[in-house]
Write a structure and sequence with these properties.
This protein folds into 2 domains: 220 residues, FAD/NAD(P)-binding domain; 222 residues, no CATH class. By secondary structure, it is of the alpha/beta class. The longest helix has 21 residues. Strand 13 and strand 14 form a beta hairpin. Bound molecules: flavin-adenine dinucleotide (FAD) and NADP nicotinamide-adenine-dinucleotide phosphate. NADP nicotinamide-adenine-dinucleotide phosphate binds next to helix 5.
Length: 547
Amino acid sequence: MSANQNTTPIKSETDVVVVGAGFSGLYLIKRFRDMGLGVQVFEAGTDVGGTWYWNRYPGARCDSDSIHYSYSWDKELEQEWTWSEKFSPQPEILQYLNHVADKHNLRDSVKFNARVKAATFDDATSRWTVTTEAGDEVSSRYFIMATGCLSSANMPDIKGADSFKGDTYHTGHWPHEGVDFTGKRVGVIGTGSSAIQAIPLIAAEADHLHVFQRSAQYTIPAFNGPLPDERIKYVKENYDELRHAARYSPDGMGTVPPAKGALEVSDEEREAMYMKGWQTGGFGFARTFNDTGINKEANDTAVKFVHDRIDEIVKDPEVARKLKPTTYPIFTKRICVDTDYYATYNRENVTLVDLTEAPITEITAKGVRTEAQEYELDAIVFATGFDAMTGSILRVDIRGAGGQSLRDAWEAGPRTYLGLMTHGFPNMFLITGPGSPSVLSNMTTSIEQHVEFVTDFIGHLDENNVAAVDADLAEQDKWVAHVNEVANYTLHPTANSWYMGANIPGKPRIFMPYMGGVGAYRQLCEGVANDNYKGFVKMSETSAAAE
Ligand code: FAD
Ligand code: NAP
């Protein structure tokens, strides 16, 4: 079914306004409708899908296991939908989300092509007024940012960017009709997860590919392939148990934490265990030992293992040297998962440009110029990532109690209680907000947990005639301190990662996601709810209760 493209501005009142129609927004619609509440969703794109609507670059796919990277709330859907591969390709995930939207008529609650520009809380009425660039203005009791952690593309400010005469793309805004690179001289800027998925496919098509690498990346082979029938049968028969295990596991996919440390075993055993993890494909490698995330010496053993694999795969020793990350511990930036990434550098038509030796100085009419030379190109692909976690939230002018701006409140970095609310912004909720496991987990598990927490909480507030709720400041401060304490126990803050905001010039350096794990965090939230939503302040009663 195609999306409703009605352009008439909406002027109305409802119970809840939600921003975003990805995995989070779609589930919110279903939950609020089932509760009998009115919900208006605004989505900047022309259809549902979020990440999977925008990121259509060659090779885009999930690197969470397909069977876990899906909704668990529709038991019929679990049985009727069959994932074709271990790691689903983007078109299939988008098709899945379209299927869900069709099945539950979710599009009726969404206004597409409507980018929210501002949201203002009125202290007198405890209502939010949400406005869009398309002229909509909706008043609601609750306001929910389901805007995603990776949805604000980062276009670096490189001198001369507008002067390039060829074609320019960003992986996060890929043209819907696709791009044919046949016979083209292509430059890819960036070597994160998106680039690592796209590079082998672009290289296979292009006349020549230049990869502009500012930081080398650790990447683990996916060993992707079709999901065997017996695996599908097993999963469908045991989905309930698998989902339960996922919800209470550290990563949201049911993984059992490793029992041993890398320094506790012999060199032979360590090598064999790393090899097993490597050959499992995907995140399996990162789960080999329990100390590589917290102990530099242990981490170095994983680094050495990956460096050895690069030496094995890449034929030119000088290229292999450049591809080996040496400036930050493995796992402290989001680990990448690839198909033939390192091997792509053995192709005659691929050149690695090491920007640590000669940084980009400008983009010219003809291509990219570094301190060393100019590279003539027909197309430039920016695989330069996102203003992660806070970007899409802060791009909206959000004004809370007393007119205070969220941009001011988060000037030194995001501050939340449980990643769900931020003090001073009553009745505003964040789905997978900073301070929650979010990007450190299989996100569909974390999204469902947040959506269920928020909708249950709103149901509880309505039952108790509470009109406004806020995060308690002291509890928020404690939570922020805890998030930092857990992060500082690990090696993570030592890397200039997007988790730290380090990829965006001027962004405060603070480790944004919560590292305590999905299961532990879930139990904590359950405890909060059971303790009459401890840490949330119920501020005022509804007029019905007051009468
Ligand atoms: P999104 O899917 O990001 O949707 C948010 C929506 O909000 C977007 O459609 C956006 O247009 C809209 N929006 C934002 N601001 C506004 C505004 N002001 N007004 C109106 N609309 C707005 N996670 C995993 O767990 N496993 C994976 O394997 C995985 N792979 C990924 C691969 C890629 C290429 C990327 C970029 C991310 C990946 N992620 C993965 C993370 C992924 O973002 C989440 O898993 C999930 O899709 C997020 O869903 P969401 O609904 O919360 O947000
Ligand atoms: P990313 O990881 O932030 O990578 C961006 C790349 O661009 C980095 O190599 C970065 O270098 C480089 N870069 C940024 N600005 C630059 C500049 N001015 N000059 C030169 N290089 C520059 O972004 P991403 O690859 O889009 O991935 C973001 C996240 O999305 C991932 O970490 C993951 O969570 C998710 N994702 C998942 C998958 C998947 O496999 N399922 C696929 C894609 C994305 P530095 O490292 O030096 O900053």
